Amino acid sequence: MSGRRMLVATIVLLLTPGCGVADAGDATDGSDNPGSISPPSGAPDAVKRYVEALNDRDVKALLEVGDAPDEPWSRKQADKIIQSKGGKGLTITKAPIKYDRMGDYMGRVALTASASEGRSLRETVDLVHVKSRWRVVLFEWPSNKETSKA
Prior knowledge:
single chain; 150 residues; alpha+beta; 5 helices; disordered N terminus
């Protein structure tokens, strides 16, 4: 009998509104996928802004797309990201987005970009829809103790 209860519980969870995934193909907003989650538009633009910030080696733009404050801890992280991935003349070749919703809208991008200098970029980029805009999840936020030391 416990196996039957487990099956029923699993089905209920799968059918619960607000918990779902949509595959947006190559950087679309999923509106062409009937019955899927209809996330807010703009996620592909956030990915493009991220790549532009890397190409321009622009710390301020990286902080903006990552929705991070201009603080010493976030500038230090942005500098590391730019040192490792920036200034390579990246061109997005693929950026399919899978959307999810657990309260807020989220997305995961399998980003592939060719480079005019150095190696191509392949990475998984997480997105979150915050303050009516899509943001790239780039920064590790310090604890309250760490920010009070800075």
